């Protein structure tokens, strides 16, 4: 069974340098991934409980974006779990939130979320990707946000 080191911190949308740094580090470490979600008051969360989540057509109330590092065999990818229903990719585009150049939308499913892939294992543009992850999760978050994001970095030991 694989074990991972996990680091969690907050980043402000006005200064995403720490997020850009960890995206770059993760991109160079196959098997790593980075989660980004808006920092919201936990008391306001109202996720679908237990068994009912299996029958719900929607994801988590607080959206989570995940960058997964590529390898020699697999391209890097970004997933976005959200609870906004069908056509999320269209809503992102209409709001001007666009994935970095070279990333292709591979999935837009109301339950499984959105998935983008790039043809390369590395990180095409860390600053643009960081902004995209923050803007996309903030756009789909129905709860009040304060411009800060929770970042979790998971790296193989």
Describe it.
- This protein is an alpha+beta fold.
- The protein has one domain (4-42, 51-156).
- Helix content is 24%, strand content 30%.
- It is built from 4 helices and 7 strands; from the N terminus they run βαβαββαββαβ.
- A 7-stranded antiparallel β-sheet has the order 1-7-2-3-4-6-5.
- Helix 1 (17-27) packs across helix 4.
- It starts with a strand and ends with a strand.
- The model has no long low-confidence stretch (mean pLDDT 85).
Question: What is the count of DSSP helices, taking H or I runs of 4+ residues?
Answer: 4
Spans of at least 5 consecutive residues with low confidence: none
Average per-residue pLDDT, rounded, comes to: 85
Q: Termini, distance in Å?
A: 11 Å
Overall radius of gyration: 15 Å
Counted beta strands: 7
Give the DSSP E fraction (strand runs of 2 or more residues).
25-35%
Largest beta sheet, briefly?
Answer: 7 strands, antiparallel
From the structure provided, what is the oligomeric state, counting identical versus distinct chains?
single chain
What general form does the structure show? globular
Protein structure class: alpha+beta
| Spatial order of the strands forming the largest sheet | 1-7-2-3-4-6-5
* H/E topology pattern: EHEHEEHEEHE
Helix content: 10-25%
Number of spatially distinct domains: 1
């Amino acid at each position: 069974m694989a074990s991972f080191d996990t680091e969690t911190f907050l980043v402000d949308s006005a200064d995403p340098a720490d997020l850009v740094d960890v995206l770059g580090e993760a991109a160079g470490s196959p098997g790593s991934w980075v989660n980004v979600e808006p920092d919201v008051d936990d008391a306001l969360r109202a996720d679908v409980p237990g068994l009912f989540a299996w029958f719900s057509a929607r994801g988590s109330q607080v959206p989570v974006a995940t960058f997964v590092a590529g390898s020699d065999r697999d391209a890097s990818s970004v997933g976005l779990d959200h609870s906004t229903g069908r056509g999320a990719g269209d809503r992102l585009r209409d709001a001007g939130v666009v994935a970095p150049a070279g990333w292709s939308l591979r999935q837009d499913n109301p339950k499984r979320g959105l998935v983008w892939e790039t043809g390369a294992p590395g990180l095409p543009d860390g600053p643009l990707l960081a902004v995209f992850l923050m803007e996309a999760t903030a756009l789909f978050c129905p709860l009040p946000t304060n411009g800060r994001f929770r970042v979790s970095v998971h790296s193989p030991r």
